[in-house]
Amino acid sequence: MRRLKRIATIAVTAGIVLAGMATPAAADTWVGTPPRCSGLPNGGSPYNWGGWCNGTGPNYTYHSRITCSGSGTYTQNGPMKWAGDSGGSFAACLTGDTFSNRRLLRYEFGVHVGTVYL
Fold first, then answer.
1. Looking at the DSSP assignment, which residues form a beta bridge with residue 64?
2. What are phi and psi of 17, to 5 degrees?
3. This prediction's pTM
4. How many CA atoms lie within 13 Å of 111's alpha carbon, on the beta-carbon side?
5. What is the pLDDT of residues 105-114, one digit of tens each?
6. Where in the sequence is the signal peptide annotated (predicted)?
7. How far is CA 67 from CA 19, 29, 96, 107, 113, in A?
8. Spatial distance between the Cα atoms of 116 and 54, rounded to a whole number of angstroms
9. Cβ(36)–Cβ(54) below 8 Å
10. Given phi > 0 = left and psi -120 to 50 = alpha, else beta, which region is 43?
11. Which pLDDT value is given to residue 1?
């Protein structure tokens, strides 16, 4: 009898663990096909830009990237954000420099999977 109770306890515990593992993965997705991303100027400034992508993290992430020029040509990256983080990712050039080639880079499980040019 004790052996049956122990087997039942192990089976129930394993089912709870497996169910708990499956739930976050199902909710961790991009929204839209392809993922819907938007970009806006930050305060109308000519030297910084950013945007956001819909979805849910943490395995789906994005960040902004701009090419700056004026005191030379260089690339600036905004911080990495989880998909769905409405705070967005913004990158800035040095004061007085301007940007071009604005884009949002998308990652799935840390691997670059696409670029959205805006």
1. 104
2. -65, -45
3. 0.68
4. 3
5. 999 999 998 8
6. 1-27
7. 45, 29, 14, 20, 20
8. 13
9. yes
10. left
11. 52
Residue 65's CB is within 10 A of a number of other CB atoms, namely 19
The letter for the amino acid at 3 is: R
pLDDT digits (tens, 9 = 90+) for 43-68: 557 788 898 888 888 888 999 999 99
Q: Please give the pLDDT value at position 46.
A: 78
Q: Return the amino acid letter for 35.
A: P
**Can you spell out the DSSP letters for 38-106?**
EEEESTT-TTEEEEEE-B--SSEEEEEEEEEESSS-EEEEPPPEETT-TT-EEEEPPTT-EEEEEEEEE
